[in-house]
């Protein structure tokens, strides 16, 4: 299936998302901070990044913008998975280049469905 990078500093949540996506047949790499998220994205060229907003060392919006500005990563899908639920936050994430936005708490089933849908869209 797809190569997916999961970036969330909550290790339990990171493990849950990784487990659900692997069960859906995806190859998953997980990190717990924004700096490592960007490094792994550049090294691995994932098909999709599941990105928390509030990450240490570099927040998710910064990572999102960096990914979008890199020509080698231009086709990478980005799904924000975050506790930030204000309308202005959603707008900022989409403006930074996110293509999907899910707020925590979330349904793992919905996450897998949204990932599948996002990956099936033309780039």
TrEMBL record:
One of the record's GO molecular function terms: DNA binding
Chain ranges of the Response regulatory domain: 3-119
Matches recorded under InterPro entries: Bact_response_regulator, CheY-like_superfamily, Sig_transdc_resp-reg_receiver
GO process terms (BP): phosphorelay signal transduction system
Any matching Pfam family: Response_reg
Modified residues (4-aspartylphosphate): 52
Keywords carried by this UniProt record: DNA-binding, Phosphoprotein, Transcription, Transcription regulation, Two-component regulatory system
PANTHER family documented for this protein: RESPONSE REGULATORY DOMAIN-CONTAINING PROTEIN, STRESS RESPONSE REGULATOR PROTEIN 1
Name of this protein: DNA-binding response OmpR family regulator
């Amino acid at each position: 299936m797809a190569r997916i990078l999961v970036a969330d500093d909550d290790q339990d949540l990171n493990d849950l998302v990784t487990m659900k996506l692997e069960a859906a047949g995806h190859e998953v790499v997980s990190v717990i901070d924004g700096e490592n998220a960007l490094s792994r994205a550049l090294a691995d060229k994932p098909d999709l990044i599941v990105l928390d907003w509030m990450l240490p060392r570099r927040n998710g919006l910064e990572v999102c913008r960096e990914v979008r500005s890199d020509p080698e990563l231009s086709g990478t899908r980005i799904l924000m998975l975050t506790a930030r639920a204000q309308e202005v936050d959603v707008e900022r994430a989409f403006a930074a280049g996110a293509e999907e936005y899910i707020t925590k708490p979330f349904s793992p089933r919905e996450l897998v469905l949204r990932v599948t849908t996002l990956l099936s869209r033309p780039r």
